[in-house]
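User: quick one - fold this with iron/sulfur cluster bound?
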Amino acid sequence: MNSFGLYIHIPFCLSRCSYCDFNSYHVDPVQVEQYVEALALEIGRRACSDAIRRRLVCSVFFGGGTPSILQASHLIGILDQCRAAFTFEADAEVTIEANPGTVDLPKLRALHAGGVTRLSVGVQAVQDRLLQRIGRAHTVREAEQAFRLMREAGFGNVNLDLMFGLPGQGMDDWSETLDWAIDVSPEHLSAYGLTLEEGTPLYKAHRQGAIGLPDEATEAEMYRMAVDRLCDAGFEHYEISNFARPGFRCRHNLVYWQHQEYLGLGAGAHSFLAGQRFFNELLPARYVSAIAERGTAVACGEKLSAEMLRSERLMLGLRLRGGLSVRTFTDLLGIEELAASDRVTRLLDDGFLRLRGGRVQISERGLLVANELIVQLL
Ligand code: SF4
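Assistant: Sure. Structure tokens for the protein plus iron/sulfur cluster:
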């Protein structure tokens, strides 16, 4: 039986971070109740569809937004409905994104007892002045406390999200953040560079010259520092921005990177099933009313062409440090052998791509320009 990942979007946050362009809104208790009810209806409806019936859930991921803003009873209720409606693999991973300041010990214990196997925590930085500058709703102390409580509640699989390239962040700040993360010793770490998304308060502040950002060379240095320090500390660098202790790679994100199928539930959630991509109504209120009226909230979808599927698979597969087998790589590019493509041979000769153990991988040099490099290949 084919497996698939289940993504559940919870579009509510305590407040809005200044760099955020995710589909998330200020939390409203009445809307939360309506939203949770709509999710239950969508779960029931989706479970009956032909595209899903004979497949196993390998992973559930509650993303947001801030899923941990919901009561544990809501989250476990949704998870139980999923278990009743879909067939789960025996060792399916169940992750909830949690932000410091939205969890306490009873909630964490309830999540653990309810079958949540993994938590992903937005820490970002360990300097309060930097957290304030990007509008995070928590302090470093709250992040430390949240992590400690997660351990106390029994969670043995925790990811910490970190960010570099923040306004006012220096190499010493980033070094301190990495030291802190290595010291608390999670099973998984994500380290993403800040992207200025158009329309966000941070984007506007930058355009108006109100904030400065580390330059490109500093940002590259920060990335290299993360790779060196985390690998030295025993983490496997298994994806461009992700690091795991052996045995703790994120199953859910591997679904995306390995181009497997996933079903997204909730406002704005995307799905990729049976060669089709579709996504739900973005606004929570529209999502809730669409589910009530039609039983589905799909706003738009498309059947992906063979060409689009090949490009996606190439793009996602190369993000993994293990890369793609030479056979898969050449098939995806539609060439007989590596030497048949000038672009490929040039990237290999220039050291941006490398061949290792019969696989084509992005080299250390290529990591810093991975996105541009993949675009060149397509
Ligand atoms: S917590 Fe995450 S989703 Fe919520 S506003 Fe901040 S960055 Fe956006």
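One thing worth noting: The chain has a mean pLDDT of 96.
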